[in-house]
């Protein structure tokens, strides 16, 4: 019979709609602003401490929604977003160094929805608030670091072949080595040229003034710089993941810049310290008394600048060889970092320590920093900010090698548990291939995000209202079917975005508004076709059937082309464009389902089982 669905199809549509309703519900329960309190030494917090915090918050007019205790940590849910930073400061003042206070967003989804793995959509930076960083990669430092690594490897090669050299010098894109004779230089050139093909070689001077100058090729420079940016991207993504940020954005911008957006992060100082940290470690042997001065460097201790030690220039391993790291406390209660090396790093460490038992090994902490100064043009008076990069190196520890080390060992000599935790995080996430500097920093507060959400919801409501009124006036009963399908379409769209973990941004809300307008296009095509078939003399049942069947091809063609455009936008666009494309793509699919199947099911149930004398359309 015409306009009748089999039972299984009605049940399938019903199941899809029920699932969509369930997984869209968590969006009615937005996360609560909260502060998380944990003991700095890993012990359970005393309830008296929490009571002091609760009293202090009340005295400062900060309303508490709820307090929860789990796993030695306390979570204090707050009523207002604007109170979150003040609450953290108050709790920190009360507890001092006894505990660590961090900002948090606590889920408010009911437990029965959580049991079904239902969660709300993730909000983007423009809706949730957070920080935006624009970082610049120091390309000159990337070249210098590569040259220094090559210089160390070349010195080891020359020593193994017993070729005498006097000095190595690194300048911009070139590396030079001085030799005692022209014969030594020529022999060294043949050896180095075999293992280091990325240089252009030239001889300078003769006799005791002989030197070999090696200049990086243009192709190698481009490869080094491209690698530096890509490696920094990977490292920054790892660091952001360690921060636990939901749906961050870390992407390349131009030849040497990286954009980092962290939704929900309000502690910008901590985020900037972690994201922009350029710290790395070098493990070196302490120099012997008879080591030539050209092969040694003197460094001071970070926590005691009055102490210093002479170290070998050659590096055993760097932080790049660390596969995992965690912080803890030693037997004396002092902070330490437990390190595991990868296979290559463990081999190099074992080889170096096996033959140097009884000798001291140092852990050198290296950090790239910069200072900005203002230069004034004497002619125009224009002010220009000039960045002066510099490097800080300091010893963390200097310990005697008691036995051959392998893949696992520990670093002590750190000042505080916080420093140990941050160092472990940086080592886990990997070191930067080149220093990065902050070019731009913007903070979007949660209040602005709330305003964006209100405006976005208002735009959706206005768009929905206008479409509903038009469909009711134009198509009467069939307009009711279309409006019900439109509401179900919006529900399914939100449910799918929540299930996929997609991020909702302002452009995404624009995509939802556009989807609401496009969602009724298919119904308009179908209803107008039904009208046309009625004018052509078909019966009501035949007109309904022909309207859906003959409009199907046009609807699919129109939506497929729009879907292809959305896919292209997603593949080549940046963050905001991707958000718009994701919402639009999902909206197209859900609108086709509701327009072609859901409205057809409602029409079938209303008109398909009885004779109809007049059609209200």
UniProtKB/TrEMBL annotation:
<feature type="transmembrane region" description="Helical">
    <location>
        <begin position="480"/>
        <end position="502"/>
    </location>
</feature>
<comment type="similarity">
    <text>Belongs to the SecD/SecF family. SecD subfamily.</text>
</comment>
<dbReference type="GO" id="GO:0006605">
    <property type="term" value="P:protein targeting"/>
</dbReference>
<dbReference type="InterPro" id="IPR005791">
    <property type="entry name" value="SecD"/>
</dbReference>
<dbReference type="Pfam" id="PF22599">
    <property type="entry name" value="SecDF_P1_head"/>
</dbReference>
<dbReference type="InterPro" id="IPR022646">
    <property type="entry name" value="SecD/SecF_CS"/>
</dbReference>
<keyword id="KW-0813">Transport</keyword>
<dbReference type="Pfam" id="PF13721">
    <property type="entry name" value="SecD-TM1"/>
</dbReference>
<dbReference type="Pfam" id="PF21760">
    <property type="entry name" value="SecD_1st"/>
</dbReference>
<dbReference type="GO" id="GO:0043952">
    <property type="term" value="P:protein transport by the Sec complex"/>
</dbReference>
<dbReference type="GO" id="GO:0015450">
    <property type="term" value="F:protein-transporting ATPase activity"/>
</dbReference>
<dbReference type="Pfam" id="PF07549">
    <property type="entry name" value="Sec_GG"/>
</dbReference>
<dbReference type="Pfam" id="PF02355">
    <property type="entry name" value="SecD_SecF_C"/>
</dbReference>
<comment type="function">
    <text>Part of the Sec protein translocase complex. Interacts with the SecYEG preprotein conducting channel. SecDF uses the proton motive force (PMF) to complete protein translocation after the ATP-dependent function of SecA.</text>
</comment>
<feature type="domain" description="SecD export protein N-terminal TM">
    <location>
        <begin position="2"/>
        <end position="103"/>
    </location>
</feature>
<keyword id="KW-0811">Translocation</keyword>
<protein>
    <recommendedName>
        <fullName>Protein translocase subunit SecD</fullName>
    </recommendedName>
</protein>
<keyword id="KW-1003">Cell membrane</keyword>
<dbReference type="InterPro" id="IPR054384">
    <property type="entry name" value="SecDF_P1_head"/>
</dbReference>
<dbReference type="GO" id="GO:0065002">
    <property type="term" value="P:intracellular protein transmembrane transport"/>
</dbReference>
<comment type="subunit">
    <text>Forms a complex with SecF. Part of the essential Sec protein translocation apparatus which comprises SecA, SecYEG and auxiliary proteins SecDF-YajC and YidC.</text>
</comment>
<dbReference type="InterPro" id="IPR022813">
    <property type="entry name" value="SecD/SecF_arch_bac"/>
</dbReference>
<feature type="domain" description="Protein translocase subunit SecDF P1">
    <location>
        <begin position="229"/>
        <end position="286"/>
    </location>
</feature>
<keyword id="KW-0653">Protein transport</keyword>
<feature type="domain" description="Protein export membrane protein SecD/SecF C-terminal">
    <location>
        <begin position="439"/>
        <end position="604"/>
    </location>
</feature>
<keyword id="KW-0812">Transmembrane</keyword>
<dbReference type="InterPro" id="IPR048631">
    <property type="entry name" value="SecD_1st"/>
</dbReference>
<keyword id="KW-0472">Membrane</keyword>
<feature type="transmembrane region" description="Helical">
    <location>
        <begin position="456"/>
        <end position="473"/>
    </location>
</feature>
<keyword id="KW-1133">Transmembrane helix</keyword>
<dbReference type="GO" id="GO:0005886">
    <property type="term" value="C:plasma membrane"/>
</dbReference>
<dbReference type="InterPro" id="IPR055344">
    <property type="entry name" value="SecD_SecF_C_bact"/>
</dbReference>
<dbReference type="InterPro" id="IPR027398">
    <property type="entry name" value="SecD-TM"/>
</dbReference>
<feature type="transmembrane region" description="Helical">
    <location>
        <begin position="579"/>
        <end position="603"/>
    </location>
</feature>
<feature type="domain" description="SecDF P1 head subdomain">
    <location>
        <begin position="304"/>
        <end position="434"/>
    </location>
</feature>
<feature type="transmembrane region" description="Helical">
    <location>
        <begin position="551"/>
        <end position="573"/>
    </location>
</feature>
<feature type="transmembrane region" description="Helical">
    <location>
        <begin position="508"/>
        <end position="530"/>
    </location>
</feature>
<dbReference type="InterPro" id="IPR048634">
    <property type="entry name" value="SecD_SecF_C"/>
</dbReference>
